[in-house]
Amino acid sequence: MKDALLATLVEEHSAVEAFASILTLETKALTALSPLELLPPIVEKKTELIGLLANLESTRDKLLAEMGFPSGWSGMELAASTDTRLAGQWSLLQKAAERARRSNTSNGELIRVRMDYNQRALTALQVAVPQKAGFYGPDGRIPARAAV
């Protein structure tokens, strides 16, 4: 049972490292001049890895329960305290997860800054171009009142 748990931790660590690598690519895309072409495959891979990580966490919790430990972090801490191999792999997983968490938080901030910039640019454009008769509206048509 411990070997299965250890194998799951190894696989989980590998998936978290892959997730962290994708987050690095996401950071590069978010700081690019035009990220729109770069982001869709990154988001797709992130979604795939999140699903894999959820499955691995579920497997880990199931194995912990079979070993008589509670699920989640507390159960893993207890299991790790009984086996040095588990403790070592658990430590690696936690460090990788923390790096990924920091990177994900940073990317969230980059997204927020970009969205704020876009909103301010849009607001400036809306103020700079007053609605006058004969101007096209946001839908590409001349408003009915101006078409007369």
Q: Which structural class fits the helix and strand makeup?
A: mainly alpha
Percent helix: over 70%
Instruction: Give the strand tally.
Output: 0
Can you summarize the main beta sheet?
none
Question: Which band does the percent of strand residues land in?
Answer: under 5%
Distance between the termini: 80 Å
- Mean of residue pLDDT? 90
N-to-C series of helices and strands:
HHHH
Global outline: elongated
Question: What is the H level of CATH, i.e. the homologous superfamily?
Answer: FlgN-like
**How many domains?**
1
- State the CATH class: Mainly Alpha
User: In DSSP terms, counting alpha (H) and pi (I) runs of 4 or more, how many helices?
Assistant: 4
Label the CATH architecture: Up-down Bundle
CATH topology: Methane Monooxygenase Hydroxylase, Chain G, domain 1
Rg: 24 Å
Which residues form runs of ≥5 with pLDDT under 50?
none
Protein name: Flagellar biosynthesis protein FlgN
Organism: Paraburkholderia ginsengiterrae
Keywords: Bacterial flagellum biogenesis, Cell projection, Cilium, Flagellum
Pfam families: FlgN
